Amino acid sequence: MKIGTRGSAMALAQTAEVARLLNAAHAGMTATPVKFEPSGDRDQVSKLDRHGGKGGAFVAELRAAMMAGELDCAMHSLKDMPGDEETPGLVIAAYLKREAAEDAIVLPAGADPVEAIDRKRLAGAKIGTNSVRRAAYLRRLYPKAEIIHFRGAADTRLKKLDERTPQKLPEGGTAGPADALVMAASGLARIGQSHRVSRLLTLDEMLPCVGQGIIAVECPASAWKMREVLGAIDNAEARAMAEAEREMLWVLNGHCNAPIAGHASVFVSRLNLRGAVISLDGKTIVEAAREGPIDRPRELGRAVGLELLEKGAQAIIDATRAYALASYPS
What we know:
Elements: E1 2-6, H1 9-25, E2 32-36, H2 39-42, H3 53-67, E3 73-77, E4 90-95, E5 103-106, H4 113-116, E6 126-129, H5 132-141, E7 146-149, H6 154-162, E8 167-168, E9 174-175, E10 180-184, H7 185-190, E11 197-200, E12 215-220, H8 224-231, H9 236-252, E13 260-267, E14 270-278, E15 285-293, H10 297-310, H11 313-327
Parallel strand pairs: 1-2, 1-3, 6-7, 6-10
Antiparallel strand pairs: 3-12, 4-12, 5-10, 5-11, 8-9, 13-14, 14-15
């Protein structure tokens, strides 16, 4: 069984977990990873717009290989999968149990977080991220810090942070070096770097992006046997959370430059969903939260998405789309 994956340390660790679960669930099965280097990994300078957003940068080539019969399935970080569009011919057949969804501030190796992280001391600090959502929240949390463009796989970003390496910019020149990064706590755990978390940001401080902390396994919709095989490792709670969050994103019709956040959590048979849309400068934020039955996640996601629109989210999304078009004209 061939599982397509990006070749980064994090992606390979995630795919190894998928293979472990499949091999444990099906006696005699040998699930093995097949490494790809999508355009978003080959080019670690440009903003993701150049590759058609996260979907084009990290997902499209794996999907094409599945449709061509070169792969049985593909592993994705759910946050990298476009949630505002249909994918004809493919289906997410399994969601793995959600890991920590929070974001974290990471300092250079050896730095003292007690001394370095508070609003006053981060004044003037250069904080690196490639996420418009994280950048928007950081401008709200740390208005006196400088947010800089910072690309690369998780282990590459850590290396550049520790070695004080400047980040090449899409328009030429460099930024940085960074004094701190914001990264997903789950991603750091996947590559054995949980100890690098200098400060975990609460959900109230920085709501995660849709799907953060969830691994998804996609396969051709017509491959019924493969769907059955993958169904054995599907986590029902993670599926409910993912469907609620992605339905909210679909209603908002967001794009890769729209700072949209969403996080669902399960309490026995109930599902709670929080959503937010924040302006690029961090000064305006629209939020909504609702609760519903766990067996109706899409209805909950739709309700939260519509409430965000009623509160003015569309104007923020349109403004970020206009900014993206001005920055990268066709």
